[in-house]
Automatic annotation (TrEMBL):
Residues 6-123 form the Response regulatory domain. Keywords: Coiled coil, Phosphoprotein. It comes from the Bacteria. This is Response regulator. Signal peptide: none annotated. It holds the Pfam family Response_reg. The modification 4-aspartylphosphate is found at D55.
């Protein structure tokens, strides 16, 4: 049974959280509420999330400050953050959101379909990344169990090829997403593409390290 991804919804207004839940319920993932920046940071201490929808205007710790804390933590720095705001103070205000680590910035009232589509991309990438990491971990345990037999070696090689093919499919999907976002020619496209590129590069590097002979000293 495939485990559902968790999506963190952060907003101080209950009606906004209800609206987000109504929009995102069709994704059939686990939606977690937080009514403040402090509550969001507490949730991030124990759970892993595919994406965070973060309201900018909140009393006390606002969205920018909350994002800064998230990005300073090793455990959470790579979680995509989508800022939601009811105000627009122009490009400087938007740039502050990207500088704080957001991968996207959406002004209210937002198009429900657009929001759902953007969130679904990060959920899908998160799920595939989890699957790849799990399979890579199982393969590493198998390889570290001792010198494999010929049959085990062939099985390992086949699994490595399958993992590589699956990762290639994710890379292709990310490339298509980047081209689609490039059409907007805004900072969101640049930030999103850069984030996906970092994640996929790390996965590809980890997979390459599993290849026979990888990391073996020369001589």
């Amino acid at each position: 049974m495939v485990q559902k991804a968790k999506i963190l919804l952060v907003d101080d207004r209950p009606e906004n959280l209800l609206a987000l839940e109504a929009i995102l319920s069709a994704l059939d993932q686990t939606l977690v509420r937080a009514s403040s920046g402090e509550e969001a940071l507490k949730a991030l201490l124990t759970d892993d999330f595919a994406v965070i929808l973060l309201d900018v205007q909140m009393p006390g710790m606002d969205g920018f400050e909350t994002a800064a804390h998230i990005k300073r933590r090793e455990r959470t720095r790579d979680i995509p953050i989508i800022f939601l705001t009811a105000i627009n103070h122009g490009p400087h205000h938007t740039f502050r959101g990207y500088a704080a680590g957001a991968v996207d910035y959406i002004s209210k009232p937002f198009d429900p379909w657009v929001l759902r589509a953007k969130v679904s991309v990060f959920v899908e990438l998160y799920m595939k990344n989890c699957q790849l990491r799990e399979q890579a971990s199982l393969l590493r345990l198998q390889l570290e169990g001792g010198r494999p037999s010929a049959d085990e070696a062939r099985e390992s090689a086949g699994l490595l090829a399958e993992l590589s093919a699956r990762l290639a499919a994710v890379e292709e999907q990310a490339e298509a997403l980047s081209k689609q976002l490039d059409e907007t020619a805004d900072a969101a496209a640049v930030a999103t593409a850069a984030h996906l590129e970092r994640k996929l590069t790390g996965l590809r590097r980890a997979l390459d390290a599993l290849e026979p002979g990888a990391g073996t000293p020369a001589g």
